[in-house]
Amino acid sequence: MPVPVPRQRAIPAVECGQAPAASPDSGPSKEQAPPGTHQAENAATRRENTRENPTEKREKPTDTSTETSTGTSAGTSTSAGTDRAPTPGVRAESAAPTNLTVLLIEDDPAGSPIVPDLLDQSGKPIRVRTARNLTEAGRLLTDDVHCILLDLALSAPAPARTNTDGGGSGQGGDAEGDDELAVLRHVLELAPRHAVLALTSSSDAERGAEAVAVGAQDYLFRDELDGRLLSRAIRYAVERKRSDSAERRLAEGRLRAQENRRLERGLLPTPLLAGSPLRFAARYRPGRSRALLGGDFYDVVRTPDGTVHAMIGDVCGHGPDEAALGVELRIAWRALTLAGLCGDELLGTLQQVLEHERSDDEIFATLCAVDISPDGRRAGLCLAGHPSPLLSRPGMPARLLPYDNNGPALGLLPGARWPRMQVELGAEWSLMLYTDGLIEGHVGGGRERLGQDGMVELVRRQRAEGLTGEELLRATVNEVRELNGGELADDLAVVLLDRTA
Length: 501
What we know:
Elements: H1 13-16, E1 22-23, E2 27-28, H2 39-52, H3 54-66, E3 69-71, E4 77-79, E5 101-105, E6 127-131, H4 134-140, E7 147-151, H5 152-155, H6 157-162, H7 176-190, E8 195-200, H8 205-214, E9 218-221, H9 227-267, E10 279-285, E11 296-302, E12 308-315, H10 320-338, H11 343-357, E13 365-372, E14 378-384, E15 390-393, E16 396-400, E17 421-424, E18 429-434, H12 451-464, H13 469-484, E19 492-499
Parallel strand pairs: 5-6, 5-7, 7-8, 8-9
Antiparallel strand pairs: 1-2, 3-4, 10-19, 11-12, 12-13, 13-14, 14-17, 15-16, 15-18, 18-19
Helix pairs in contact: 7-8, 10-11, 12-13
């Protein structure tokens, strides 16, 4: 049986954070008995310790397999990184799992009684692990560690040994305080999610304040510690770290939200209608909460020959991927239109873009495209599985444009065709393009939907009241929401083009 190794009497294990070295078959070691001590008394003492400190016997085999034991010059066996043993005399049920675990980093855990007995807010003992260098600290820094106690003075030589500068010993040139803060910075980089308490002497309060400025949650005077003060400081540091982390995440979330809003605003279209007599108005409302972009998209451009091209579309789905695909299709449509493509040729190329950019083969998009002649009296219409536009003229009720030749949605049928229909607009008219979000809202509290017929009647009534342009769009969207009993679940986009005599 191994000979029990003596330890220093002035530093109990519960204070230095170390469990006494133990043999797996003999229980926890105690100070070696002087010559003449009765063997039965030693055996009784070992049995009593085993009853009072059952966790030591269980923890030691684990420690010897995962931790590095280092002997001191005084003959004390110190297991670096082991949990602090329960206080002698405390019953076994008091050694139940604790709420807080602390990692103490100092060069000589057994040489100075830094950590007294600690209890958490519920009265349970706080577990203390010890590490003699940053390498051991990194190994012991598991997810269950809540707070790090860093002794600045005792840790000062660490960076001097690791940051040697070209053949020198590394201890000359810089002040000791710089080395202390270098160690602290290293710990903060090693444990960005953990609370850190810096320990310093009462004569070096300035260094403690600098440690807080660097990133520690608080600093304490090493020579004025007691269990109650340190326990309270640990709880405060942990809660402050949680609060700081939550505040940082909130600030980061706000910044990301602002960036997303700026990005989404930049992706919304700016109509190119310079030189056109037509008036333009639009309403856009994504179905996703707190989003600026949805799967609906629209655009209006005027080509050099004076033709005004307008488009509105809807990607199936409501997520950010669908919104991104809608933006890609809108930009592609504008580029193809400005390049001179129109009708079936344009939609066929647009379908190729969708097929290459969509994340799933089941994704498709509906689209309505019109090209209004330079004189404003006629228009070509192409429908790809999309609702037909609504045309209203003075003295005539609003009506839907013909949709008999409606082609399939983009992305459904390879090699599909989309015939272009010619429609007469007249001298004065109002043309409304919309997505199904405007017509699929419910009416009242039932399951009946507004539908195209209900929308036509709604617009007829608004036009009869003299509403046009922005006012007409605002009144129409607001009434659709009221009929639905609240916000619409689907994305919504409406484009209105007006021509006055």
